[in-house]
Design goal:
Elements: E1 2-3, E2 14-15, E3 22-23, E4 45-46, E5 49-50, H1 58-62, E6 82-83, E7 86-87, E8 89-92, E9 95-98, H2 107-137, H3 140-153, H4 160-163, H5 169-178, E10 184-188, H6 194-201, E11 205-210, H7 213-225, E12 232-234, E13 248-251, H8 262-273, E14 281-285, E15 287-288, H9 294-309, E16 321-324, E17 327-332, H10 334-343, E18 346-352, E19 358-363
Parallel strand pairs: 3-5, 10-11, 10-13, 11-12, 13-14, 15-17
Antiparallel strand pairs: 1-9, 2-4, 6-7, 8-9, 14-19, 16-17, 18-19
Helix pairs in contact: 2-9
């Protein structure tokens, strides 16, 4: 067994500025060993390993522990300690080699590990085929219907605990920075009213709309119980109320990414743009697409191939499209969200991935 900077189980990693022994978890080995692995660069890691109960020779080993504190050290520590007839430890540069004779696993262990490995591979393959097939087969209207149904059945988003929990820290900081105090804000996809309640408590005038009937009724009932005057409207999916004017816009938490297709999302932004004056702020939140796993690439290629078999009537898929039991969602790259805001009539003035990915635009 080799312990390196990629050391995993049972050992805590320390920077070169720290200096302490670590518990390797082999308490059944009656040997105490503390030693230093040589440091070659400023950002190298220091591993100090401790086996079992402390021995009387601890002071002898502690002499090897000289903190490098950034110095260039080419020290190579080599030690052999015998316990129950086993040669244990050899230090060499940045590697610790344990030379204890390995125990061969029993047959039942090997069978379990082999079956488990193939089971995991099979589950991955089924997941790829499942998501890829339905993402390629379902129309945007079907994906939206699955999303609405998941929110209809959710107890979290219709419960008072969530809806009276207030704004997230990143929401509060963004609203304080970009939205004029006391202004009138329209919340798209307002759900059960979490944003509406929090905004009213901060002194804003807030109205909202949603396409989920159950959440609209929940929001109206909760606002009435709290004595908050707010207009909550039921709208068709991807649509907005027509005869309202506001000073700012908030698209409910991650709701923007649940609109299938960039063309629909841009059309939605343009409808919102018509309801606000120039320089009005808009806040949208989403998930990001920083890198794609091999399985995600396979899902996309498979679903794209299925869409191609359906001919022209099937809308093309986009990288970052996904479908789960909670419905459709799209993961964005920074350039993608900026381009969609621009096409919808907004100039992106702030982007952040701290705490949660979100962007702020202003109406042009």
């Amino acid at each position: 067994m080799v312990l390196s900077p990629n050391l995993q189980h049972g050992v805590r990693r320390q920077t070169y500025k720290e200096h302490a022994s670590l518990d390797f978890g082999l308490d059944d080995i009656p040997i105490h060993l503390v030693a230093e692995v040589g440091m070659r660069h400023e950002h190298d890691s220091l591993y100090c390993i401790e086996f079992g109960p402390r021995s009387q020779d601890q002071n002898d080993w502690s002499k090897l522990l000289r903190p490098p504190y950034g110095r260039q050290s080419e020290q190579v520590c080599t030690a052999a300690v015998r316990s129950a007839g086993c040669t244990l430890c050899v230090f060499n540069g940045l590697k610790l080699t344990l030379t204890m004779p390995p125990l061969a696993p029993r047959l039942r262990v090997r069978v379990y590990l082999w079956l488990d490995r193939w089971l995991q591979r099979g589950m991955r393959l089924l997941g790829i085929l499942h998501e890829g097939f339905w993402l390629g087969f379902l129309d945007p209207e079907d994906l939206t219907a699955i999303t609405i149904r998941s929110y209809e059945q959710s107890r979290v988003y219709s419960g008072p605990e969530h809806n009276q929990s207030g704004l997230f820290p990143w929401e509060r900081e963004t609203i304080d920075r970009f939205f004029r105090p006391g202004s009138r804000i329209l919340v798209a996809a307002c759900g059960g009213g979490r944003e509406l309640i929090a905004l009213h408590r901060l002194g804003f005038q807030a109205d909202g709309f949603d396409c989920t009937p159950h959440l609209v009724e929940t929001s109206r009932r909760l606002l009435q119980e709290l004595g908050i005057s707010s207009n909550v409207m039921l709208c068709p999916p991807n649509d907005v109320p027509r005869e309202l004017t506001h000073d700012g816009l908030i698209v409910g938490w991650t709701a923007y990414m649940q609109i299938p297709g960039s063309a629909r999302r841009i059309a939605f932004l343009r409808k919102l743009h018509a309801l606000v004056p120039p320089e009005a702020p808009i806040l949208v939140s989403f998930w990001v697409r920083e890198w794609a796993s091999p399985d995600e690439g396979r899902v996309f290629r498979f679903s794209k191939w299925l869409r191609s078999l359906r001919g022209r009537r099937a809308e093309p898929l986009e990288p970052g499209d996904h479908v789960t039991d909670r419905g459709y969602h799209h993961c964005f790259a920074k350039e993608e969200i900026e381009a969609e805001l621009k096409a919808g009539g907004f100039r992106m003035c702030h982007y952040s991935q701290v705490d949660h990915p979100y962007a702020v635009g202003v109406a042009e």
